[in-house]
Amino acid sequence: MSGADIPLKRTTIKLPDALDAKLRHEAERQGRTISDLTREAIEAHVGGRGRRTLLSANAGRSGRHDVARRIEEILTKELGRSRSS
User: Fold this and answer.
1) Which DSSP symbol is given to 56?
2) Does residue 37 contact residue 23 with C-beta atoms inside 8 Å?
3) pTM for the whole structure
4) In angstroms, how far is the first alpha carbon of the chain from the final one?
5) Which pLDDT belongs to residue 14?
6) DSSP 8-state assignment for residue 60
7) How far apart are CA 69 and CA 35, in angstroms?
8) Residue 77 contacts by C-beta under 8 Å, 6 or more apart in sequence?
9) Domains in the chain, number
């Protein structure tokens, strides 16, 4: 969702460092803005404009073209990271 079609109000939120890092990583991974992801999360939590969002839309879209060739390397790296966290 883009805010271009409706007036937007700026607000400030405070996040723990770990959550901020996750948000920034996810925004980069999806090629979206932090504001866009934050609005979507808030709408999902407190209700939005009655519009349903397909949570799986663009789920596999990383912006990288070599994921299929590097899947073993990526999984090993990600699984190792989650085990050590």
Assistant:
1) T
2) yes
3) 0.49
4) 32
5) 95
6) T
7) 32
8) none
9) 1
